[in-house]
């Protein structure tokens, strides 16, 4: 399972995009908790790299739905 997360940063033209192995619910909870605490949002991508973003600079966060990776040519 993986979920795509896009984070818009204030005064930056490009968004930060990563794919996480966590569920969309756990990513949503991490974002909500970080925004409530006013500290730093910490996420880990699917390759194990950690991403830290100060919540004061976050313009928006888009959390995709959790999807299983499909392999092969079978029916979707």
Layout: helices, strands, pairs:
Blueprint: E1 3-9, E2 16-20, H1 24-37, E3 40-44, E4 50-54, E5 58-63
Antiparallel strand pairs: 1-2, 1-5, 3-4
Q: What's the quick description here?
A:
β1 (3-9) and β2 form a beta hairpin. 18% of the residues lie in helices and 37% in strands.
Q: Looking across the biggest beta sheet, what order are the strands in? A: 2-1-5
**What's the SSE pattern?**
EEHEEE
Give the helix tally.
Answer: 1
The percentage of residues in β strands lies in 35-45%
Helix content: 10-25%
Mean pLDDT: 88
How many E strands?
Answer: 5
Characterize the largest beta sheet: strand count, sense, and whether it forms a barrel. Answer: 3 strands, antiparallel
Ranges where pLDDT stays below 50 over 5 or more residues in a row are none
Shape annotation: elongated
Strand pairing plus helix content: what structural class?
alpha+beta
Radius of gyration: 14 Å
Termini, distance in Å? 15 Å
């Amino acid at each position: 399972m993986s979920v795509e997360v896009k984070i818009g940063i204030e005064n930056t033209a490009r968004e930060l995009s990563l794919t996480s192995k966590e569920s969309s619910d756990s990513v949503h909870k991490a974002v909500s908790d970080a925004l409530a605490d006013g500290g730093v949002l910490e996420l880990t991508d699917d390759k194990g790299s950690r991403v830290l973003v100060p919540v004061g600079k976050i313009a928006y966060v888009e959390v995709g739905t959790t999807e299983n990776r499909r392999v092969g040519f079978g029916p979707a």
